[in-house]
Design goal:
Elements lengths: L20 H6 L2 H21 L97 E3 L6 E3 L13 H12 L5 H12 L5 H14 L1 H9 L6 E10 L18 E8 L4 E6 L4 H8 L6 E4 L13 E3 L1 H12 L4 H25 L4 H25 L2 H12 L6 H4 L8 H17 L5 H19 L4 H13 L14
Parallel strand pairs: 3-6, 6-7
Antiparallel strand pairs: 1-2, 3-4, 4-5
Length: about 500
């Protein structure tokens, strides 16, 4: 026989309703469970509807107009350059690089009208340089392969292709320019075709643009594979993933999901101090992480809280505190104990970032940083354990999962030089998002391989301050002459 529950035994999610303890005690257990489940689902949907860039991983561009602007601390200074700012001007090119010099001399004095001698010169004239782009004319080369009949046997022999002649209609520079326009400058296929038509009077179809991307991708296959092979031994790796769409064809690493989910794929990025790698896979799970990093990666891996990374060894993993700060914000907006725990975690996170920035600026020695963060670690751990034991189901689940990887919260405290965020991967994956917006994904596996290779080349060259167009031209020319493409790995310093 059930006893009459006290009001404290009422579910926290139902305390806002006019349900007395006696009415709740008279409710059948099956109805109680159904009501509790429905109220939890309503709370989850209300929270989901209220998600913004401040309490979730949504981008700021998705925020509705009702979200107030971010608070900034006014400095009291006017916008623009401040008084006393020296300014920055473009340096003049040396005389050896100047193609034409146009002397401009005054004919008469602007004050009294006296004519100047014809040979009068200023030893230090004011120099003003103007840069102009000359008209670009496309060079068209026609190869005529003759077929001659042998006077002895009567059979015809056609001349072989000369070395380095492309089989398509585009040369190495044209193909590399197209790949650079799509991968680095995020132009859509039709926009690239329009650019070539307007700038170079070259008429190409969007399909030809895709073909050029495929040829450049094939030329970069070996150096990209070599860059991917360095991930398991990298001393530091920042990883992130975002949604992608691939219409068909199997994935070489993970099996295809059911047909209903076939278009869904994921764009992964892995950033090391030397290279930035992109991969498109059907899965968002741990098999992709293992395929990229190996079973036991050597370095420290920076990630967010996604479950696909939970196979990593926590002491060799650093969770992103910027993501955690948004999670704490979401907790603080919940009623009851969850809101109190979220607000306290937010306060400790702000103290954490303040202390870490002091260490980065050099105003606080690293042993002092570690000492200042010790009570923060203790307080955060106590709050997570309290939430896992006493908070509502969703909050308890979040706290419990974080406690399972608790060492990954504090790797940056144990290891000097480790950052508490995953910002490098967040910034690196943004060009992939822009590419997805202009291309709407890829049609098949070949297109996905082209995208991931070109994005890898662009990001790695920019990371190493190398010219993307020059690298792609060299890679295509090397492929035409059956030579290895230039490496994407940095040249070791002697």
């Amino acid at each position: 026989m059930e006893t009459t529950p006290t009001p404290s035994l009422l579910p926290a999610s139902l305390t806002a309703y006019a349900i007395s303890a006696e009415e709740w005690a008279a409710t059948p257990p099956s109805v109680r469970r159904a009501l509790t489940s429905l109220e939890d689902e309503c709370a989850r949907l209300r929270e989901q509807a209220g998600q913004t860039s401040r309490n979730s991983s949504k981008p700021p561009s998705s925020d509705p107009p009702t979200v107030p602007p971010r608070e900034t601390t006014p400095t009291g200074r006017a916008r623009g350059g401040q008084p006393g700012h020296p300014g920055t001007t473009r340096p003049l090119a040396p005389p050896a690089q100047v193609a034409t010099v146009v002397p401009v001399r005054p004919a008469v004095c602007a004050h009294c009208g006296t004519a100047f001698p014809p040979d009068a010169v200023d030893p230090h004239p004011h120099r003003h340089q103007v840069v102009e782009v000359p008209p670009v004319v496309v060079t068209l080369t026609e190869y005529q392969r003759h077929a001659l009949r042998c006077p002895h046997c009567g059979r015809r022999t056609r001349a072989p292709w000369p070395a380095g002649v492309p089989r398509g209609c585009l040369g190495p520079r044209a193909s590399a320019l197209i790949a650079t326009a799509t991968a680095q400058y995020h132009l859509a296929k039709r926009a690239v075709a329009a650019l070539l038509r307007d700038w170079f009077s070259l008429t190409l179809s969007p399909a030809t643009v895709c073909t050029a991307e495929q040829r450049v991708s094939a030329a970069c296959a070996a150096p990209v594979a070599a860059a991917v092979a360095t991930l398991p031994t990298a001393r530091r790796v920042w990883m992130d993933e975002t949604g992608w769409r691939q219409a068909r064809d199997p994935d070489p690493v993970t099996p295809d999901p059911p047909p209903a989910r076939l278009p869904k794929a994921w764009l992964w990025t892995a950033v090391t101090p030397e290279v930035t790698v992109f991969q498109i896979r059907r899965s968002r799970g741990s098999p992709v992480v293992t395929a990229l990093l190996g079973a036991t990666p050597d370095g420290i891996i920076h990630t967010d809280r996604w479950n696909g990374y939970h196979g990593l060894d926590p002491p060799h993993r650093q969770l992103c505190w910027a993501h955690l700060q948004r999670a704490w914000t979401q907790l603080s907006e919940r009623p009851g104990l969850a809101g109190e725990i979220g607000a306290a975690l937010l306060a400790h996170t702000q103290a954490l970032f303040h202390t870490w920035h002091q260490g980065q600026a050099g105003t606080l020695a690293w042993p002092a940083v570690q000492a200042a963060l010790a009570p923060v670690q203790t307080a955060v751990g106590d709050l997570l354990r309290d939430g896992a034991a006493r908070a509502d189901r969703r909050t308890a689940t979040t706290c419990h999962r974080l406690l399972q990887v608790e060492p990954a919260l504090w790797t940056f405290v144990r290891v000097p030089g480790v950052e508490p965020t995953n910002n490098r991967a967040e910034r690196a994956i943004r060009p992939g998002v822009l590419y997805r917006h202009t291309s709407f994904g890829t049609q098949g596996d070949a297109g996905s391989r082209a995208v991931e290779r070109l994005l890898t080349v662009v990001a790695t060259c920019r990371q190493q301050q190398r010219n993307v167009l020059a690298y792609l031209i060299a890679a295509v020319e090397a492929a035409l002459h059956d030579q290895p493409a230039p490496s994407l790995l940095p040249t070791p310093t002697p």
